[in-house]
Amino acid sequence: MNAPTASISSNTSVEAHRSLRAWPTVIILMLVNALAAMDRQLPTILLDPIKNTLEITDVQVVLLTSLAFSVCYSCVTLPMSVLADRSDRGRVIMAAIFVWSAMAVICGYAPNYSSFVVGRMGVGVGEAALVPCAFSLISELFPRERRSIALMVFVLGAGIGNALALVVGGSLPGRIDASTLALLHVSQGWRVPFLLVGATGVLLALLALGLFEPRRAQRRCGVDVVLPFKGEGRGIAPVVHYARSAAFLFIPLVVGLTLLNLIVSGSSVWLPTFFLRTYHWSPEYVGSTFGTAQLVVTIIGIPIGALIANWIRRRQARDAVVLVVMTSALVITATLTIAPLLASGWAALSLLIVGQFFVGCATGVVPTTFLTVTPSALRGRVTGCYFFIVNLIAIGCGPAAYAAVTDHVFHDPTRLNLSISCVSLILGLILLACLMLARRRYERGVALAAEHERLLQPVC
Q1: CA 370 to CA 387: how far, in whole Å?
Q2: How many domains does the chain have?
Q3: Is residue 332 part of a domain?
Q4: How far apart are CA 97 and CA 103, in angstroms?
Q5: Residue 164 in domain
Q6: Is residue 295 part of a domain?
Q7: What is the tens place of the pLDDT at every residue in 369-426?
Q8: Which tens digit of pLDDT belongs to each residue from 77-122?
Q9: Separation of alpha carbons 214 and 153, rounded Å
Q10: Is residue 9 one of the residues assigned to a domain?
Q11: Interior angle at CA 279, CA 273 and CA 280, nearest 5
Q12: For residues 197-218, b (16+ Cβ closer than 10 Å) or e, as one string?
């Protein structure tokens, strides 16, 4: 067999493996994403038990559960995004699962404030590798016309994990008897969900061995692996260079998406506690009602958002994804502004569930929003830079913003409902203005990315 024929045969073998294992890989990544989101969201339903055990304030709780996580997550995301464009992403993800699972166990056994902070920082370090590697891998496994659906399935895992955190965190601690606590060598029921997440992570890390990595398959088949592109470099500098040329779009788009994530992340941390303090619901009741409802509407909302965006795009509207995000942001802002002011807990819950549906719609298309205007050679690094900004500001500062207004403006923990309403309204108006501007400029961004793609010459 001559060299050209061997090369064609090897490429055909790689493509055959890719088509067979693409969807199983996405399903595994969705399960991993669900576990990561559950680990990240778990403290929100356990804020008051953690606060009482460690004897800390609302602001300290936020620093403990959100800022400690987000700072480490954001800082480590950047090197992980470079790794995603250069290495075996399946093995990186497997190692990351082991790291954050071990750190979840440390949180479960943390005897004091400092050790819990160390555990949450470790969770952030471990989870930082998942999204850049997953986005880069999925973008490589699927053609453009099917990529948004595959990304939607991956993102769906986060919605499921967030809801499961409320259900498990709200119901499990109260059902743990003294003998089980003694067996696990813990004294409080709120610690058990962290231990459960850690144990589940070990099993998923083994399942991650089944992730299909095209680069590994190419090397096995003797096909040259194309990594960097001529003139693109291997670090963050190419991202900065491209972002400057696309600043007309990236600035309003990233600011708008960051503020949307800030509202969603900040409110989601405090909404379970809002029901506890305002309507005096029990953690078990909040977990079983709000958590279950969130799980259902998220599973419905994420695919519907992606399907609506695809339907609009087929009608020659290139800015379809931005339109879906902007409409969702409008409804989310309205529900978070009005619901906390209602006298009835069930009325507030019903309105917030509507908002959660639109959170799902936005979540399903946000990855496509910035990946569509990014050349393929930069997607892993652009994802890393985007999540560096979003998580440092949104997850780090979002919950703290609501807590600071509660502690320093209203000076009353029971007036948390007013904090949620006021902060959501002010930030929501700003983000809507940014997304409107981004929508007007989006077609120019798509054209710029396509032009940049044409200019790239692969180096084997």
Answers
A1: 11
A2: 1
A3: yes
A4: 10
A5: yes
A6: yes
A7: 887 888 877 777 787 788 788 877 887 788 888 988 988 898 888 899 999 999 999 9
A8: 878 877 776 778 888 899 999 999 999 999 999 988 889 989 999 9
A9: 20
A10: no
A11: 70
A12: bbebbeebbeebeebbbbbebb
- Give 414-419 contacts, CB < 8 A, sequence gap 24+: 414/277, 414/278, 416/270, 416/273, 416/274, 416/277, 416/278, 416/340, 417/274, 417/277, 417/278, 417/340, 417/341, 418/340, 418/341, 419/270
Closest by CA position to 41, among listed 105, 123, 151, 96: 123
Length of the chain measured in residues: 460
Rounded to whole angstroms, how far apart are CA atoms 130 and 55? 33
Task: State the residue for tokens 């509407």.
Answer: 297
Q: What CATH number did the domain enclosing 131 receive? A: 1.20.1250.20
Measured in degrees and rounded to the nearest 5, phi and psi for residue 229 equal -110, 155
Which backbone phi and psi does 185 adopt, to 5 degrees?
65, 40
SS3 at position 75: helix
Q: How confident is the model at residue 17 (pLDDT cuts 50, 70, 90)?
A: low
d(CA 163, CA 168): 9
Residue 56 lies in domain: 16-211+227-455
For the full predicted model, state whether its pTM sits above 0.85: no
β-bridge mates for residue 458, sequence order: 229
Amino acid residing at 122: G
Spatial separation of the C-alpha atoms in residues 244 and 412, rounded to whole Å: 45
Among 123, 137, 136, residue whose Cα is nearest residue 73: 123
